[in-house]
Amino acid sequence: MTTELVADPGPHPDAALLEKESLAQFDSSKSRFSSFLKCEPRLDRLFQLLCDGVDKPQALAARIKLRRGTVQNLRKRRRRRWRRRNTS
To answer: By the 8 A CB rule, do 46 and 60 touch?
Structure first.
């Protein structure tokens, strides 16, 4: 009788730990930036939708109930705020 070893199909412990730490860091950054945007509700809503994976301009416009051009301008403002927040 021979026993064969089968590799565990799950992620390696070190990879799982790195992913967990990465997600924790993302959540922390997301929370801080969202707090930074609280004074601008439309920008905060845009940021939350982007974090949730909604990134197409038409879909964003429909969810925020704004014109597509307005959403594109909001995206530019969000990028500027992100740069300003991360360089200060």
So the answer is: yes
78 located within any domain? yes
Amino acid at 44: D
Count how many domains the chain has.
1
Average per-residue pLDDT for the chain? 89
Tokens of 74: 């909001």
In a domain, 21, yes or no: no
* Residue 34 maps to a domain: no
Share of the chain above pLDDT 70, in %: 99
Q: Residue 75: inside a domain, yes or no?
A: yes
For residues 12 and 63, what is the distance between their CA atoms, to the nearest angstrom? Answer: 39
Question: What is the domain extent for residue 61?
Answer: 40-88
User: What is the per-residue pLDDT for 88?
Assistant: 64
The yes-or-no verdict on residue 2 having pLDDT over 80 is no
What are the two backbone dihedrals, phi and then psi, of residue 26, each rounded to the nearest 5 degrees? -60, -45
Q: What share of the chain is helix, strand, coil (3-state, %, to 5)?
A: 70, 0, 30
